[in-house]
Specification:
The chain is α+β, with helices and mostly antiparallel strands and about 290 residues long. Helices cover about 30% and strands about 30% of the residues. It contains nine helices and 13 strands.
Length: about 290
């Protein structure tokens, strides 16, 4: 039977299941992150989790989730190591395992400044940046008058087609979960054609806006404004920094900058798809 003195580099890495949700949330809390049980539930259902158990029976000491989009890309997120085992090489070992499991599949992740040096050592390069903004949306500069409405069941296939076109890969297994995962899912429509869509999903005391997919910045603004009218929670979202006009508009309307993350890729010069119409990810943990 393993003991608390078992060498950390010999502890097995196992696949996680939905039954590990509480353990993952406990690990998040251990590192000072929000528990984010709702998000963990989605990631464990749509992706593949990897974890290392504490030999002393004190839950997980490390975890991460990989969301695969076929041979073209997989996104790594929620890379966590328990505080009591930090800076002992466990995160590096877990990442090497994930990279090995991925084989030839290109990888992407969003890196904090603290995590970026490790990922660079593992072959990831910075190919973009995202700015996290948060706050109570207070309309000071109106959005363009572009019609939006709640999505209905018949919209799912058009949403999936638009998402595949703009994201560059099929992520049906993630997007099809949005109606159940999000509190709001809205579309922008012109002449019977869906030109954008966005979701607002609950995360602790906020509503996170993502994905945010739109024909242009004005359509993105209209979607955000329409989502904001139906919640009294602060909004949070992660915007590609190249979308300067949207970021400026969000800040004018009450959202403040919180942090920057580096968008990093491995074995890929940049993310596929059309960045000019991809404004925010569903979550930085899944792309």
């Amino acid at each position: 039977m393993p003991t608390s003195t078992a060498p950390l580099d010999h502890l097995p890495i196992r696949s996680l299941t939905s039954g590990d949700l509480i353990g993952c949330a406990d690990l998040s809390e251990d590192r000072g992150w929000p528990r984010e049980e709702h998000k963990w539930g989605l990631l464990l259902a749509a992706g593949t989790g990897y974890g290392i158990d504490d030999p002393a029976g004190k839950g997980l000491i490390a975890a991460c989730v990989v969301t695969s989009y076929g041979p073209g890309l997989a996104a790594i997120g929620m890379v966590l190591v328990a505080e009591r085992h930090a800076r002992q090489g466990i995160g590096r070992r877990l990442m090497r395992h994930v990279i090995s499991q991925a084989g030839d599949t290109p990888l992407t992740l969003h890196a904090t400044p603290n995590g970026q040096p490790l990922y660079e050592q593992l072959g990831f390069v910075e190919t973009g940046r995202a700015e996290m903004v948060r706050g109570h949306f207070t309309l000071r500069e109106p959005a363009p008058q572009i019609p939006t409405r709640p999505a209905i069941a018949e919209d799912l296939q058009p949403i999936l087609r638009l998402d595949t076109e703009i994201f560059g890969l099929d992520r049906t297994h993630v997007i099809a979960r949005l109606p159940a995962f999000a509190d709001q899912l809205r579309v922008a429509e012109e002449n019977g054609e869906i030109t954008g869509y966005a979701a607002a999903w609950p995360n602790m005391d906020t509503h996170v806006i993502g994905p945010l997919i739109a024909r242009d910045a004005g359509t993105a603004q209209a979607l955000v404004a329409s989502l904001a009218t139906a919640t009294d929670r602060p909004l949070r979202t992660d915007i590609d920094v190249r979308h300067e006009s949207l970021l400026s508009w969000l800040k004018t309307n009450g959202l403040a900058p919180i942090a920057f993350n580096a968008v990093m890729t491995r074995s890929l010069p940049g993310l596929p798809g059309d960045w000019s119409r991809r404004f925010a990810p569903l979550t930085v943990a899944a792309g």
